[in-house]
Specification:
This protein has 300 residues and is α/β, with parallel strands linked by helices. The protein has two domains: 89 residues, 2-Layer Sandwich (Alpha-Beta Plaits), CATH 3.30.70; 196 residues, Vaccinia Virus protein VP39 (Rossmann fold). It is built from eight helices and 14 strands. The protein has a seven-stranded mixed sheet with strand order 10-9-8-11-12-14-13, with helices on both faces. The protein has a four-stranded antiparallel sheet with strand order 2-3-1-4, with helices on one face. Strands 5-6-7 form a three-stranded mixed sheet. Strand 13 and strand 14 form a beta hairpin. Helix 4 packs parallel to helix 5 and helix 7 runs parallel beside helix 8. It is elongated, with a radius of gyration of 23 Å.
Length: 300
């Protein structure tokens, strides 16, 4: 069954009021989108990002009398109704549509990320079969790609790797395929831990080599050889002592989810615990890698 969409070109001052009004008029869902290419990467705590120019879209059942909806919205809304239009949303197989756009990706010299429903491009390569499910992480985003590329360049044989903020499990599973002996995958979203276990099974890796846990339950007493954390700059700032505590001196770390303009601040912050910090970039995103020092071993 197709759906009907009522799209309104709003601004920062009226977007949320229009959202409330559409829900009151029976919209099954309302979305707010950037209508002027104004990125909002990292909202503050309890802050909801709203763009200066926002497209508000109400989704209605196909049988809805949209003329009546617009009339009621015009009558009840306390300001002139902004420019709007009604469109039909096709009844597509959205999963199949998404699958058609997820292609194999080469990350470094050895590693390929392959959709689980496609044959690997190079059967002799290190091929990670992935079905992201409901959790973030396919390798297409620059932050994930940079972490995968870093892992591909590292000697991981017999290492214990911590994948902090594991999402779909892509980084931890890649580490296992590249030679790691053990991975601890940590995320605050239980769905991410489910997706990680599913992807682990898809790659025919025994669950005895990868342990999933929530942050508060994860064991921080066992020292890891490598930590990867693809999150955002704000959480990475707060997590620095915790991430450092996973590593003995000489342990390696890679951090991503960092915008280019945030990289120097993060690099200086982590220099308390890590030496040889280097920054690599792709598009507007960065990855910071370094080696655990001995200076603040007692503090963490």
């Amino acid at each position: 069954m197709p759906w009907l969409q009522l799209k309104l070109d709003a601004d920062r001052d009226n977007a949320e009021a229009l959202e409330d009004a559409l829900l009151e008029l029976g919209a099954a869902a309302v979305t707010l989108e950037d209508n002027a290419d104004q990125p909002l990467y990292e909202p503050g705590l309890n802050e909801r990002p709203v763009w200066n120019r926002t497209r508000v879209t109400g989704l209605f059942d196909a049988a809805t009398d949209m003329d009546s909806v617009v009339e009621a919205l015009t009558r009840n809304y306390p300001a002139p109704l902004p420019p709007h239009r009604i469109e039909i949303l096709e009844d597509k197989d959205w999963e199949r549509e998404w699958m058609s756009h997820f292609q194999p990706i080469q990350c470094g010299e050895r590693l390929w990320i392959c959709p689980s429903w496609r044959e690997p491009v190079d059967p002799k390569a290190v091929n990670l079969l992935l079905d992201p499910g409901l959790a973030f992480g396919t390798g297409t985003h620059p932050t994930t790609f940079l972490c995968l590329q870093w892992l591909d360049s590292q000697p991981l044989s017999d290492c214990h790797v911590v994948d902090y903020g594991c999402g779909s499990g892509i980084l931890g599973i890649a580490a296992l395929l590249l030679g790691a002996a053990q991975v601890t995958a940590i995320d605050n979203d239980p769905q991410a831990l489910i997706a990680t276990r599913d992807n682990l099974a898809r790659n025919k890796l025994g669950d005895e080599r990868l342990h999933c846990d929530l942050p508060d339950k994860a064991d921080r007493t066992g020292k890891a050889d490598v930590v990867v954390a693809n999150i955002l700059a704000g959480p990475l700032m707060e997590l620095a002592p915790r991430l450092a505590a996973y590593l003995e001196p000489g342990g390696r770390i890679a951090l991503s989810g960092i915008l280019a303009e945030q990289a120097e601040t993060l690099r200086k912050h982590y220099s308390e615990w890590f030496d040889d910090l280097t920054v690599t970039s792709k598009d507007d995103w960065c990855c910071i890698a370094g080696v655990r020092n001995e200076r603040f071993q007692q503090k963490t």
